[in-house]
Amino acid sequence: MLLARKVIGFYLEDIETPLGRFINLAITSLVLVSSAIFVIETYPISNNLKEILDGLDIIILSIFAVEYLLRFWCADSKVKYFFSLYSLLDLLAILPFFIGLVNISFIRILRWFRILRLVRFIQKKFLFERISSEDSIIFARILFTLFAIIFIYSGLIYQVEHPVNSDFNTFLDAVYFSVVTMTTVGFGDVTPVSQVGRLLAVLMIMTGVALIPWQVGNLIRQFIKASNQVETLCPTCQLSLHDADAQYCKICGTKLAKSL
């Protein structure tokens, strides 16, 4: 039993072996498919297609639930894992659906946070493994952060405003409003009418004012840092960027070959 727990735990975290890569890629794909289902359902679709999408979403949620239970079972410290960021994001994605007593509108609001499950794979560089330079990885992560925030805000504002506001007919309308609001352009052609919608608009503005300069600042700092580094591959840990005058790897301490 202990061996089985270690093997399963290894493959749930591994991205090097074929099986580990397949599992992580499958989970990533299911997160994206699940998010796409939410977007499609904001448009007028037939009842048959809606039933198919709802059934597919139930299957995906069931897989997420099994994955969470396996991760919890494999964790060395159950309490520590339960309160970890990844665990809370996973619970946020699956619990609302399986608690039947919760109001359905509350469930629909929470499901937009499911995109945050990709944070686990962002941190492992799983989605950016084909990007070689460190500054490109930082840039890709910044783009994902902006995409995730816009996606969540768009889903939330659509869920809140669509029943009472004709300006929010589809998910694209909500994306347009989120981008315009977060960038503080504020054309004024689309405005929320509910109290919760107005609160979300305020949060969008505050997020845009705080997040965008911070992310751009991170990107500029990374570019400056990269300009002062040279590409020297460490034979032990494979770190590719080091300071120009570095003689040893700053991660593992291996002596570096001199760059020509």
Describe this structure in words.
The longest helix has 33 residues, at 195-227. With 260 residues, this protein is an all-alpha fold. It has helices at 2-13, 18-40, 47-74, 78-82, 85-98, 104-110, 119-123, 134-161, 171-182, 195-227; strands at residues 229-231, 241-243. The model is unreliable at 101-107 (pLDDT under 50). The chain has a two-stranded antiparallel sheet with strand order 1-2. Keywords: Ion channel, Ion transport, Membrane, Potassium, Potassium channel, Potassium transport, Transmembrane, Transmembrane helix, Transport, Voltage-gated channel. Residues 21-227 form the Ion transport domain.
- Strand arrangement in the largest pleated sheet: 1-2
Structural classification: mainly alpha
Strand content range: under 5%
Radius of gyration using CA atoms only: 22 Å
The overall strand count is 2
The coarse overall form would be flat
Distance between the termini: 53 Å
Low confidence ranges: 101-107
**Share of helix, binned:** 55-70%
Mean of residue pLDDT? 78
How many helices?
10
Give a short account of the largest sheet.
2 strands, antiparallel
Order of secondary-structure elements? HHHHHHHHHHEE
Short structural description:
This is Ion transporter. With 260 residues, this protein is an all-alpha fold.
